[in-house]
């Protein structure tokens, strides 16, 4: 499995601690440094079963600068949202774990991390 993290994020550090405690094998991706492209974001969204606005951190300063709260949330604006996430990766909710079975989870809680471990 792979986990997308921001090392400054306490939820990310907690998820890593739990993965380590469970002896999980995983790869760390510092997604602010190794930024996912639009196609990769689309793939992760499909694995999550979510839309781009579902994983967008709308409280970030750049979200306000872009006016994200006013953007429509529909099929017609989906690509615009994805482009914003690729251009401004800080907007991506974290951590995200992509499991070996082809699924993914936004791992902000211990239960979510355990769910990823069970896959």
Automatic annotation (TrEMBL):
Keywords: Oxidoreductase. Pfam families: ArsC. It comes from the Bacteria. The keyword Oxidoreductase applies. CDD domains: ArsC_ArsC (cd03034). The keyword Lipoprotein does not apply. One of its GO terms (molecular function) is arsenate reductase (glutaredoxin) activity. Belongs to the ArsC family. PANTHER family: ARSENATE REDUCTASE (PTHR30041:SF4). This is Arsenate reductase. It comes from Streptomyces toyocaensis. The lineage of its organism: Bacteria, Bacillati, Actinomycetota, Actinomycetes, Kitasatosporales.
């Amino acid at each position: 499995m792979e986990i997308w993290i921001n090392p400054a994020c306490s939820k990310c550090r907690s998820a890593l601690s739990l993965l380590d405690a469970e002896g999980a094998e995983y790869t760390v991706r510092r997604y602010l440094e190794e930024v996912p492209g639009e196609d990769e974001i689309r793939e992760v969204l499909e694995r999550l079963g979510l839309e781009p606005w579902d994983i967008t951190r709308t409280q970030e300063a750049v979200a306000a600068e872009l006016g994200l709260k006013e953007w429509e949330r529909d099929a017609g604006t989906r690509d615009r949202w994805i482009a914003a996430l690729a251009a401004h990766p800080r907007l991506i909710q974290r951590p995200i774990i992509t499991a070996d079975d082809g699924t993914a989870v936004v791992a902000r809680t211990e239960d979510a991390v355990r769910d990823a471990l069970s896959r």
